[in-house]
Amino acid sequence: MMQNNVNNTNYVSEFRQDFAIIANWVKFGTKVLDLGCGDGELLQYLRNSLEVKGYGVEKDDAKWLACMQNGSNVIQMDLEDGLSGFEDQSFDTVILSQTLQAMHHTEEIVQEMLRVGREVIVTFPNFGYWRNRLQILTGNMPVSKTLPYQWFDTPNVHLCTISDFDQFCKNHNITVLERRVITDTQAVEFMPNLLGNLAMYRLKASS
User: Fold this and answer.
1) Which residues are CB-contacts of 26 (< 8 A; sequence separation ≥ 6)?
2) Is 122 within 8 Å of 36 (Cβ atoms)?
3) Most Cβ neighbours (<10 Å): which of 6, 32, 36, 98?
4) Judging by beta carbons within 10 Å of its beta carbon (0-12, 13-18, 19+), is residue 12 exposed, middle or buried?
5) Cα 90 from Cα 83, distance rounded (Å)
6) How far apart are CA 111 and CA 38, in angstroms?
7) Residues forming beta bridges with residue 94, ordered by sequence position
């Protein structure tokens, strides 16, 4: 049956609510590009649950090798160099999962994703989450499950809040098709910019 159904996907060692949400935004059997794909766990999840034609992009040598070893199609390249090797609208969905905050050229990568994909999925840790605010008030940079690094070894360069990203989309004429905010595995509807620690967006270029 050609439908989004991840209930029988049991090979991921720990249940990932963000993976389940992404899978519900991706259509069965479509062509997907996962940017900063890491060891390919999300690609594998989407292949097994939705039979997508998945491709990844990863810079790190060890993660690229892990991706190859689990059978993912992956290109080793630096996202900061852009996506000029990919044609316009060549993928049904382009995904950037918890990598946006590590990009130096944020505007450029989002615009390139919208060029390459018919739809775009972006997820990022919400810097406005109340626990992050509390740590700043006590005089420390936030460290959490979604922001696991210390200030001196973090790859994150452009942290933002949900309100920041909403304004970014408005300013750049980007259509937000859906937005989900979660804390661990729980959906957050009330005051998401304060109570949610992970933001998830489904986007497309405005016509």
Assistant:
1) 4, 32, 46, 50, 52, 92, 93, 121
2) no
3) 32
4) middle
5) 11
6) 22
7) 33, 120
Q: Which CATH class is domain 17-205?
A: alpha beta
Distance, in Å, from the CA atom of 142 to the CA atom of 28, rounded to the nearest integer, reads 38
CA dist., res. 90 & res. 86, Å (int): 7
Flag whether the pTM goes above 0.85: yes
CA-CA-CA-CA dihedral for 12, 10, 21, 185, to nearest 10: -70
For the stretch 74-124, pLDDT in tens is 999 999 999 999 999 999 999 999 999 999 999 999 999 999 999 999 999
Can you tell me the distance from the alpha carbon of 199 to that of 185, in angstroms, rounded to the nearest whole number? Answer: 12
Q: Tokens representing 52? A: 């997508």
Burial class (CB in 10 A: 0-12, 13-18, 19+), 55: buried
Question: Per-residue pLDDT averaged across 187-196, rounded?
Answer: 97
Spatial contact of 183 and 198, defined as CB atoms under 8 Å apart: yes
Given the structure tokens 């499950």, which residue do they identify? 145
Tokens 């892990």 correspond to 66
DSSP letters spanning 133-174? HHHHHTTS----SSS-S-TTT------B-HHHHHHHHHHTTE
Residue 120: which H helix or E strand, with range? strand 117-125
Please give the helix or strand (H or E) that residue 53 lies within, else none.
Answer: strand 53-58
